[in-house]
Design a protein that fits this description.
By secondary structure, the protein is α+β, with helices and mostly antiparallel strands. The chain is built from 3 helices and 13 strands, in the order ββαβββββαββαββββ. The strands form 2 sheets. It has an 11-stranded antiparallel β-sheet. The chain has a two-stranded parallel sheet with strand order 2-7.
Length: 198
């Protein structure tokens, strides 16, 4: 079993750790090898340093983040736990400029980013999903929160990056298919919660 503490910074004015930073942190700590069938789930607001645990156990109790993947064909599981050490650092993040560079097609239920905006693929995916859902459901009140990212392979950033709405299960699971350079690479799911719940 491998364990490691990971410190994060808040993005912009947020008071929680962004899901895209958690995905990048997990992937950067994997041993070299081919990663496939990456599946990460988020359960609640994260505002503390996380302890990352890699093992083969299926136990996920109290984990804020859990997931699994194939590394060179071998199943690996991981979990992240908060350790009661608050995040204190903050970095600038202008999500609005990222979204402004994209194009939403409400009729096609899709959003596309055609050019480099200076962000990594996971920040792009989460920003595009939030923008797409806000466009498809403009009258819905609440906060869109990333709950799951499923990837067949880890995509290299290439353009266009597109999301196509897939399904809405009573706003508990709102899923979109991810396309990078025209190829389907997986899915991203958000849930809608009340502001008081966050």
């Amino acid at each position: 079993m491998h364990q490691e503490l990971i410190e994060f910074s808040y993005l912009g004015s947020r008071d929680y750790v962004h899901s895209s930073d958690i995905v990048s942190a997990v992937l950067s700590r994997l041993p070299a090898g081919r990663v496939q069938n990456f599946d990460i789930r988020f359960s609640g607001k994260i505002d503390q340093t996380l302890r990352l645990v890699f093992d083969k156990s299926s136990e996920t109790q109290d984990a804020k983040v859990s997931g699994l993947l194939l590394l060179d064909g071998e199943l690996r599981r991981f979990r992240l736990y908060q350790i009661a050490e608050k995040v204190t650092q903050r970095i600038a993040y202008d999500e609005n400029s990222l979204v402004a560079a994209s194009v939403v097609d409400v009729n096609a239920q899709a959003i596309t980013l055609e050019r480099d905006v200076g962000h990594g693929v996971f920040r792009i995916l989460t920003a595009l999903q939030k923008a797409l859902l806000s466009s498809l459901y403009p009258r819905i009140k609440g906060k869109w929160v990333c709950t799951r990212i499923e990837l067949k392979d880890i995509p290299e950033l290439a353009y266009p990056v597109s999301l196509k709405f897939s399904r809405n299960l009573n706003f508990k699971i709102v899923r979109s298919e991810i396309f990078v350079a025209g190829h389907s690479v997986g899915f991203i799911s958000f849930t809608l919660i009340g502001a008081a719940q966050w």
